[in-house]
Design brief:
- The structure holds 2 protein chains of 2 kinds.
- By secondary structure, chain A is an alpha/beta fold.
- Chain A contains 16 helices and 23 strands.
- In chain A, strands 15-16-17-14-13-19-20 form a 7-stranded mixed beta sheet, with helices on both faces. Chain A has a 6-stranded mixed beta sheet with strand order 10-9-8-11-12-22, with helices on both faces. Chain A has a 3-stranded mixed beta sheet with strand order 1-5-4, with no helix packed on it.
- In chain A, helix 3 packs across helix 4 and helix 3 packs antiparallel against helix 7.
- Chain A is globular.
- Chain B is mainly α.
- Chain B starts with a strand and ends in a 7-residue tail after the last helix.
- The chains are: A alpha/beta, B mainly alpha.
Chain lengths: 496, 150
C-alpha cells in the first residue's frame, strides 16, 4: 500500500487566532517535527502574556452578545461546524498523523470522536433547559436557569491534538461561553485547522480563540481573573499540583484529567482471538500514548497451560505488528511523539530488566522502513513476571510496553489493580457474566471495560476518572460538561 | 499482500469498485446493446465505493480494533485480466460474470472479518454483497437466455 499524500507540505508558520483574526506572535518559536520522518513541518510560537491577555479580552468582549445569541442559533453554528469538519475529515486526520505520528486509522478515529462532541453539543436547546416548580409555597414558583459564566480556558495535551479540546469547547460555546484554547506546543496544527473551520462556520469574533505557547501561557491562564474555569488533560503531577491547586486558589472551576496505569484482567474463559486483537490495540495503539491504554496485563488463575499458551500467542501477535509511518495504510503502530518520550520509554524498559522482570519481546531494536527515521520508534515490548512494586508495574510509562502479571483469583487481581494510585480505565476479558459484574462492582476505575480494551466513553457520556487520574467534580463531555460550563441561577417568584 | 488495517481494507474495496466501474464503462462504449445496463452497474459501483467510505468514516473510532481487523490476501481478489472491448457482447457479459464472482468472494470474506468493526461496516458489505449477487444472476441470465426469450 502506498503512503497517503501529506496535507502539510513545507514549513507552516503557526499563528494565534484571536478575536476572529489570525495574528502572528511576537514570541520565540519552536519547530514542530513529524516524529516518523524527522521533517520539520511547522514553527509554533511561545506566545507572551500580552497575546494571551488579548485573547481573553477578545473573548470577554464577545461574551455579552454571544450569551444573548439564542441556543438555537448557537446550535445552528455548531451544525455548520460539524458539517465543515465532515468535509475536512481526511485532511484533519492526516494532519494529526503528520504532527503526532499515530496511524491513519487512529487519526480518523480521533477525528470522529471529536466531531461526535460537536454533534452532541448541537442538542444544546434541550441539554440546557432549566427546571421549574410551581407552588413551592402558596402562590410562589421557583425555577432554575443554567447560565453561562464567561471565558473558559482549555489546555490540550500532545496525545490527541484534535479530539481532546473538543471534549470541552463545543459545550462551552454551546452554553454561551467563550473559549481560549492552548493546544500542546508539540502538536499545534490540528487546533489551528479546527479554528479555520470555526471561522468558516461563522462564529462571531472572540467566541473561539487559540493561543499557542508553553508553560507561561498556562500560568497566565491560571492567574487571569477573567478566566472562569479551566479544563486540562495531561500528567498527574501538573494536573494535581499545578492546575487543580491553582484553580482552587484563584476560585476557578476545574476539570483536570490526568495520568493512568490501566490494568487489563484476563480470565481463562475469555475469547482468546478477540481478546488478543483488543490487547494489541489497547497496549500498543497510539504507541501506548493514551491515558486509556492498558499497561498491566493480569492473567487470572493457576492454569499454567492456559497462561503459557496465551502469553505465547500474545507475544507472537505483538511481534508481527507492523511499525512505521502512520500515513502508510498498512502500518499498525506509529512512533512515540518525540525523541525524549522514546528515551523515557527505553529507560523504563531498562528498569524492568534491572528489576528482574523477564523481557519476552524487546521493542528497542525495532526496524522501520523509509521514509521513517528510527529516532522516535519503540516497537511492542512485553515483560512477564512483573510485580506491582516494580516501576514498570506501578508508574505510567506512556509507551508500548505490556507488563504481564499473574493472580490466583479474580479477587486477587482486583486487589492488585485497586492498589494502584490511578483509576482511569481498567478492563476485564471474560465470557462469564458473574466475573464481569464482580469486576464492574469492585474495581476502582472511572471508566470500566468489559471485553473492551480502550474504555473511551462516547460523547454523550462523561469521560470519567478516579483517584490520581482525575481532579475535579464534573467531567468533560455530554451533560456533565453542560453543567460544568453553566452556573445554576435559581429564581423564586411571588406576585402580590 | 496481506491486509490487516481497516484503512487498507476500505481502500482496497474502493479500488476494486473503481476498477470494475471503469470496466463497465468501457463495455458500455463498445457495446450499445449493453450500454444502459453497463452504465448502471458502473454508477452503482461508484455509489458502493461512496457508501463504504462514508460508513467507515462514521464508525471508525479507537474503541474498535481498527488496525487489526482484517486478514485478507489481496492476491485472492485479483480481477480477471479482461479486454472489455474485444469479442462479442456475449464475451463481455461473460467477463463481467467472472469479475462479479471475484467481487462477491471479496465481500463475503470482508463482511465476516469486519465483524469487529461495529455493525455498520459488515452491514454495508452485506448490502453490497446482496446487490452483487442479484447483479450476477441477471448477468448469468443474459448468457443463458430462457427458451421463451430465445
Amino acid at each position: 500500500m502506498a503512503v497517503l499524500p501529506e496535507p502539510i507540505t513545507g514549513v507552516k508558520k503557526i499563528e494565534n487566532y484571536i478575536g476572529g483574526e489570525w495574528v502572528a506572535s511576537r514570541g520565540e518559536v519552536r519547530e514542530v517535527v513529524n516524529p516518523a520522518t524527522g521533517k520539520t513541518i511547522a514553527t509554533v510560537p511561545l506566545s507572551p502574556k500580552s497575546e494571551f491577555d488579548a485573547a481573553v479580552e477578545a473573548a470577554r468582549g464577545a461574551f455579552p452578545e454571544w450569551r444573548r445569541t439564542t441556543p438555537l442559533a448557537r446550535a445552528r453554528m455548531l451544525f455548520r461546524l460539524k458539517d465543515l469538519c465532515e468535509g475536512a475529515f481526511e485532511d484533519v486526520s492526516r494532519i494529526q498523523t503528520q504532527e503526532h505520528g499515530k496511524t491513519i486509522d487512529e487519526s480518523r478515529g480521533e477525528t470522529r470522536r471529536g466531531i461526535e462532541n460537536i454533534e452532541v453539543a448541537c442538542g444544546i436547546p434541550t441539554l440546557m433547559q432549566g427546571q421549574y416548580s410551581e407552588d413551592i409555597a402558596s402562590g410562589i414558583d421557583e425555577w432554575l436557569i443554567p447560565t453561562p459564566l464567561g471565558v473558559f480556558g482549555i489546555i490540550g495535551p500532545f496525545n490527541f491534538p484534535w479530539m481532546i479540546p473538543l471534549w470541552s469547547a463545543p459545550y462551552a460555546v454551546a452554553t454561551g461561553n467563550c473559549v481560549v484554547i492552548k493546544p500542546s506546543s508539540e502538536v499545534p496544527l490540528s487546533q489551528n485547522r479546527l479554528a479555520e473551520l470555526v471561522e468558516e462556520a461563522g462564529f462571531p469574533p472572540g467566541v473561539w480563540n487559540v493561543v499557542h505557547g508553553g508553560r507561561d501561557v498556562v500560568g497566565h491562564m491560571l492567574d487571569h481573573p477573567d478566566i472562569k474555569g479551566i479544563t486540562f488533560v495531561g500528567s498527574t503531577s501538573i494536573g494535581r499540583d499545578v492546575i487543580y491547586k491553582r484553580c482552587g486558589e484563584t476560585g476557578k472551576r476545574v476539570i483536570a484529567q490526568c495520568g493512568a496505569k490501566n490494568f487489563m484482567l484476563i480470565m481463562p474463559d475469555c475469547d482468546v482471538d478477540r481478546t488478543i486483537a483488543a490487547m494489541l490495540t489497547s497496549f500498543f495503539g497510539n504507541a501506548g500514548q493514551r491515558c486509556l491504554a492498558a499497561s498491566n496485563c493480569v492473567v487470572v488463575g493457576a492454569d499454567d497451560r492456559f497462561y503459557k499458551e496465551f502469553v505465547r500467542r500474545v507475544v507472537e501477535a505483538a511481534r508481527n505488528v507492523r511499525v512505521g509511518y502512520g500515513l502508510d495504510e498498512s502500518v499498525q503502530m506509529g512512533p512515540l511523539r518525540d525523541r525524549e518520550k522514546r528515551d523515557r520509554v527505553v529507560r523504563y524498559i531498562e528498569s524492568g530488566i534491572k528489576d528482574g522482570a523477564k523481557l519476552l519481546l524487546d521493542g528497542r531494536s525495532v526496524k522501520v522502513e523509509s521514509p521513517c527515521r528510527v529516532d522516535c520508534f519503540v516497537g511492542p515490548t512485553i515483560f512477564e513476571n512483573v510485580t506491582p512494586e516494580m516501576a514498570i508495574g506501578s508508574e505510567e510509562i506512556f509507551g508500548p510496553v505490556m507488563s504481564i502479571m499473574r493472580a490466583g483469583s479474580l479477587d486477587d487481581a482486583i486487589a492488585v489493580a485497586n492498589a494502584s494510585r490511578y483509576g482511569n480505565g481498567h478492563s476485564i476479558f471474560t465470557s462469564n457474566g458473574k466475573s464481569a459484574r464482580r469486576f464492574q462492582y469492585e474495581i476502582e476505575s472511572g471508566n470500566v471495560g468489559i471485553n473492551v480494551g480502550i474504555v473511551a466513553p462516547v460523547a454523550f457520556f462523561p469521560f470519567s476518572g478516579m483517584k490520581d487520574s482525575f481532579f475535579g467534580d464534573l467531567h468533560t463531555q455530554g451533560r456533565e460538561a453542560v453543567r460544568f460550563f453553566t452556573e445554576s441561577k435559581v429564581v423564586i417568584q411571588r406576585w402580590f | 499482500m496481506l491486509i490487516h488495517t481497516a484503512s487498507e481494507g476500505i481502500s482496497f474495496a474502493k479500488g476494486l469498485e473503481a476498477a470494475t466501474a471503469q470496466l463497465y464503462e468501457a463495455m458500455a462504449e463498445r457495446f450499445p446493446e449493453f450500454r444502459d445496463r453497463a452504465l448502471a452497474h458502473a454508477a452503482e459501483n461508484r455509489r458502493f465505493a461512496g457508501t463504504i467510505q462514508r460508513v467507515y468514516q462514521e464508525v471508525i473510532t479507537d474503541a474498535i480494533e481498527g488496525c487489526y481487523c482484517f486478514q485478507l490476501e489481496t492476491e485472492d481478489f485479483g480481477l480477471p485480466v479482461v479486454d472489455p472491448v474485444a469479442g462479442s457482447v456475449h464475451d463481455a457479459v461473460g467477463q463481467a460474470v467472472a469479475v462479479e464472482n471475484v467481487m462477491i468472494d471479496f465481500y463475503s470474506k470482508a463482511q465476516k472479518q469486519a465483524d469487529t468493526l461495529m455493525a455498520d461496516i459488515p452491514r454495508a458489505f452485506g448490502t453490497i454483497l446482496r446487490k452483487r449477487n442479484q447483479r450476477l444472476e441477471a448477468l448469468k441470465a443474459l448468457l443463458c437466455p430462457s427458451p421463451e426469450r430465445a
